[in-house]
Amino acid sequence: MSVEQKDIIDVIHLEGKDKVVLTIADHLGWDHPEHQRLLEEKIDSYIDFAANGQMSEDYPAAAGRKMIIAVVCQHEPDQNAIAFLTEQRDRIAPEGYDLQWGRPGF
Fold first, then answer.
1. What is the pLDDT of residues 50-106, one digit of tens each?
2. Strands, sheet with 66-73, edge to edge from the N-terminal-most edge strand
3. Which of 16, 71, 85, 102 is 20 to 30 A from residue 43's alpha carbon, by CA?
4. 3-state SS class at 43
5. Which pTM was predicted?
């Protein structure tokens, strides 16, 4: 499981009564030339997983919950990474999804 495997949901869990969290395990350094592209593809894959009904089919308890995508970063995001992640969060927000990021344990 990793950011490089876009068609695999790394971790999924329910949070409280109204949220489902899909986690991306991101081990790449922010200087990796393909990092942002791979991460955007993985985010889009997670959105497709929810939007096409597959999440509700595979995890019925997740149906109707607000989806949060959590990017767990092995490496601290630099300013460029934070700008990228903020753009991604803003891009998916109108669809009803949230994006959070941080180091393990955030």
1. 999 999 999 999 999 999 999 999 999 999 999 999 999 999 999 999 999 998 876
2. 11-15, 19-26, 66-73, 98-102
3. 16
4. helix
5. 0.93
Question: What integer pLDDT is reported at residue 106 of this predicted model?
Answer: 67
Angstrom distance (rounded) from CA 88 to CA 42: 11
Q: Which domains does the chain have, with CATH numbers?
A: 11-102 (3.30.750)
- Amino acid making up residue 53: G
Q: How far is CA 37 from the centre of its chain?
A: 13
Average of per-residue pLDDT across 1-10? 88
Cα 94 to Cα 5, 84, 90, 91, distances in angstroms: 25, 17, 8, 7
Calpha distance 101→89 (Å, rounded): 10
Place of tokens 């308890």: 61
Angle between helix axes 35-51 and 79-92 (nearest 10 degrees) is 20
Q: What is the mean pLDDT of residues 14-31?
A: 95
How many degrees, rounded to 5, is the angle at CA 99 between CA 93 and CA 100? 145
